């Protein structure tokens, strides 16, 4: 079982129940539904399928709902894929039309107002570059700078434009309400610019009486990079969404920005997800390139919590093979990590609170005695998250009676979430811990496990005990 988690996006190539089941069996921990390409009926069907599979397999798969955000997209086209030819002209209109290679509509009518003559417009994740040649009140006329394809609802980016777009659209508000109704575990917030955007969502969740769904802010623009510390402060985690980010900033800066964000998230004890084009070749081919393998490996070595597959599993030809390939890459790289050296990278100072001190000691002890696993008993999930923060060399089995807590740990590094009955004593925690380890691993005599947690579960909200247990 890999420590670095895997998120897979569901789409037409993978939305059948059997395909989802095979992806979960091959290592997927979180299922993502991108609402830029889905409606509520479709999303509901996928979520219900995942929940049925979890019951069948006794798994705890997280559900991530991805908002559209204040994005700009092309409207509907008359065919699935439309080719644009270099040197020709194309109109972008604010009128609601079905587009073709000569004219397309946009989801943001203000685009016409904000675009300037000579400005570059990048379409379909930057695959096609347009240049504004002329404009009037209703449309702009652009020159096509390279051959390429566009699809219905594909992205429009204008890196140098300064748009004023409300962060929470009516559709995104309905999406958040839907996520709460379906008890989703994570909301991935698209095109976050600053902490106020995240706080707007938090305010809506308070109105909806939901304080459990976790907010993952997608870092996709220059402003978000500049505001990363403040965004992390009000988020449960961040996602380095390298597709749009590679359009908004110079592409050669992406690796260093990725590493900086991953490091900052770890320092703030927040989740970090690396996303976009990790194995993009596998949309059309059964094998990745060597560069893609290295890309996934570097994300693992950066200590990220999770890596994400997008179009590879949503519309690619080989969704199951892609998941299996990523799983093998992660497994191979994690064998090379020296977890004792990794622990030494963290500052151990006098300001640690009780929970962090015990979490550090738990990981240190597990590494030193070569423990088979760490088992942590938790009601809120905080104990498991703190232990995960220190990146132990063995898996962390998080046991909790709370189903929402358990699914909410599906994205955290190294954690195997297991739902168990409520316990009434530390002796019960120890006995239950040994039972769960034996269910998951092949345990031999004299194998050691480290047990940590808080007790009584309903009275203590911090980690207050640790025990090393040898299997007799």
Could you explain the architecture of this structure?
The chain has helices spanning 17-25, 40-57, 111-114, 170-181, 195-207, 222-226, 228-234, 242-248, 254-267, 290-301, 311-314, 319-334, 339-344, 354-368, 382-389, 403-407, 426-440; strands at residues 5-9, 30-34, 62-66, 81-84, 89-93, 103-105, 120-123, 128-135, 139-144, 148-151, 156-157, 186-189, 214-219, 237-241, 271-275, 306-309, 373-377, 396-400, 415-419, 448-453, 465-470. It is an alpha/beta fold and 472 residues long. The protein folds into 3 domains: 5-69 and 167-335, Phosphoenolpyruvate-binding domains (TIM Barrel, Alpha-Beta Barrel); 81-157, PK beta-barrel domain-like (M1 Pyruvate Kinase, Domain 3, Beta Barrel); 340-470, Pyruvate Kinase, Chain: A, domain 1 (3-Layer(aba) Sandwich), CATH 3.40.1380. The strands form 4 sheets. It has an 8-stranded parallel β-barrel with strand order 1-2-3-12-13-14-15-16, surrounded by 7 helices. Strands 6-5-9-8-7-11 form a 6-stranded mixed beta sheet, with helices on one face. Helix 5 (195-207) packs parallel to helix 7 (228-234). The protein starts with a strand and ends with a strand.
Topology:
Blueprint: E1 5-9, H1 17-25, E2 30-34, H2 40-57, E3 62-66, E4 81-84, E5 89-93, E6 103-105, H3 111-114, E7 120-123, E8 128-135, E9 139-144, E10 148-151, E11 156-157, H4 170-181, E12 186-189, H5 195-207, E13 214-219, H6 222-226, H7 228-234, E14 237-241, H8 242-248, H9 254-267, E15 271-275, H10 290-301, E16 306-309, H11 311-314, H12 319-334, H13 339-344, H14 354-368, E17 373-377, H15 382-389, E18 396-400, H16 403-407, E19 415-419, H17 426-440, E20 448-453, E21 465-470
Helix pairs in contact: 5-7, 10-12
